[in-house]
């Protein structure tokens, strides 16, 4: 088989696997534009030739990332990580985290993880962190970009479906809180993300029940005194201090083998409870403990919420993507000082309740 044919076949296989992971099970096995799937207005399925940028349906992915060596959807880690465990019982510390405070940089109907090299093929996304993130982003291009994060070393791409009130985009204002936490009891085993790791958290095609019972679900959509909503509240208190908020956690256990997989999820897993204990550990097939990312987003909208929607659909279609492009030394300093060190740090790596521990970064949020 020629190189070109192999890549095309791999891309089609990858597309089918991606759609299967989003709940689409009937895909025409054809490489022509006539190959279509249909889906409700909550997902990634739509005829190739008619995908609307402002709608909730999406076209099939027909291209592979330049970092995918054979177009099969698997991007191997180099080197892989073996022999990792999270079985120690370190002294209890209530906090083991730091914040990445990143502002919105731009919006665009692109997704370099799900639709690499295919500009305009995604529903609209709100991007934070790296200022260059688009459909053609790679680890190298992000590493050469700029950032809206307080720490200049955080060149990662973070994105989520764009929120609308009617036809008006509602974008978070100012730095948003993206926590990096320990998801396992043995917080001393957490290590930095490998450069180039990427994954999707949740799915635009999940049902309301799946969203509510997702292992990353924290408080759902909330505003004022209304919490744990799978859909947007009908109304929110019409006060200047009230915003629409959501918190959602990512898986934090890695297989140590792949930076990406065809469904953009299988290389990651959530911690599990060790039998006979209350300890959270990484499962045997995903033994590498990484930071647990938690999005804490605030959208400046309140009052009548009847026209509020996501570019991916209703409230329960919320999901987000992460593409790691941190400067290796900066990320390691923050993970070691704050997560492994059992501190509650800001974006400098400073815990105001433990000033004696100092900070991981200087006043410019750079390595000293």
**SSE sequence, one letter per element:** HEEEEHEEEEEHEEEEEEEEEEEEEEH
Shape: globular
Q: What does the average pLDDT come to?
A: 87
Count of alpha/pi helices: 4
> Structural class of the secondary structure composition?
alpha+beta
Task: Work out the number of β strands.
Answer: 23
Task: Write a compact overview of the structure shown.
The chain is α+β, with helices and mostly antiparallel strands. Helices cover 11% and strands 24% of the residues. It contains 4 helices and 23 strands.
Give an account of the 3D structure.
- The protein is built from 4 helices and 23 strands.
- It is of the alpha+beta class and 368 residues long.
- The strands form 7 sheets. The protein has a 6-stranded antiparallel sheet with strand order 2-8-20-13-10-11.
- It is globular and about 50 Å long.
Comma- or semicolon-separated keywords:
alpha+beta; 368 residues; 5-stranded antiparallel β-sheet
Topology, pairings included?
Blueprint: H1 3-21, E1 75-76, E2 97-102, E3 104-108, E4 125-129, H2 139-143, E5 157-161, E6 163-165, E7 168-170, E8 176-181, E9 198-201, H3 208-212, E10 217-223, E11 226-229, E12 235-236, E13 244-249, E14 253-254, E15 258-260, E16 268-269, E17 272-273, E18 280-281, E19 288-289, E20 292-299, E21 303-304, E22 308-310, E23 320-323, H4 328-339
Antiparallel strand pairs: 1-15, 2-8, 3-4, 4-5, 5-23, 6-7, 6-22, 8-20, 9-23, 10-11, 10-13, 12-21, 13-20, 14-16, 14-19, 17-18
């Amino acid at each position: 088989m020629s190189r070109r044919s192999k890549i095309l076949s791999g891309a089609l296989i990858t597309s089918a696997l991606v759609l299967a992971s989003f709940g689409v099970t009937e895909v025409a096995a054809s490489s022509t534009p006539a190959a279509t799937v249909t889906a409700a207005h909550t997902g990634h399925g739509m005829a190739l030739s008619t995908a609307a940028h402002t709608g909730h349906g999406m076209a099939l992915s027909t291209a592979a990332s330049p970092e995918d060596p054979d177009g099969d959807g698997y991007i191997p880690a180099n080197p892989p990580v073996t022999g990792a465990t999270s079985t120690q019982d370190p002294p209890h510390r209530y906090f083991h985290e730091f914040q990445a405070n990143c502002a919105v940089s731009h919006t665009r109907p692109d997704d370099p993880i799900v639709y690499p090299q295919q500009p305009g093929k995604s529903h609209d996304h709100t991007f934070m962190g790296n200022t260059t993130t688009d459909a053609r982003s790679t680890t190298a291009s992000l590493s050469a970009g700029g950032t809206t994060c307080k720490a200049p070393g955080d060149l990662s791409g973070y994105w989520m479906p764009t929120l609308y009130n009617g036809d008006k985009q509602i974008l978070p204002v100012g730095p948003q809180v993206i926590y990096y936490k320990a998801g396992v009891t043995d917080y001393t085993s957490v290590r930095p993300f490998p450069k180039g790791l990427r994954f999707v958290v949740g799915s635009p095609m999940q049902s309301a029940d799946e969203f509510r019972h997702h292992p990353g679900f924290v408080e759902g959509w909330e505003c004022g005194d209304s919490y744990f909503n799978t859909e947007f509240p009908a109304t929110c208190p019409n006060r200047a201090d009230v915003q629409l908020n959501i918190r959602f956690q990512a898986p934090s256990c890695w297989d140590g083998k792949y930076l990406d997989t065809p469904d953009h999820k299988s290389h990651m897993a959530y911690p599990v409870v060790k039998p006979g204990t209350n300890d959270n550990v990484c499962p045997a097939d995903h033994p590498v403990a990484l930071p647990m990312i938690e999005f804490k987003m605030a959208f400046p909208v309140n009052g009548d919420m009847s026209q509020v929607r996501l570019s991916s659909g209703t409230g329960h279609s919320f999901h987000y993507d992460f593409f790691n492009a941190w400067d290796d030394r900066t990320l390691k300093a923050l993970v070691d000082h704050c997560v492994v060190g059992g501190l509650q740090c800001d974006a400098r790596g400073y815990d105001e309740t433990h000033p004696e521990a100092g900070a991981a970064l200087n006043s410019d949020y750079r390595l000293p």
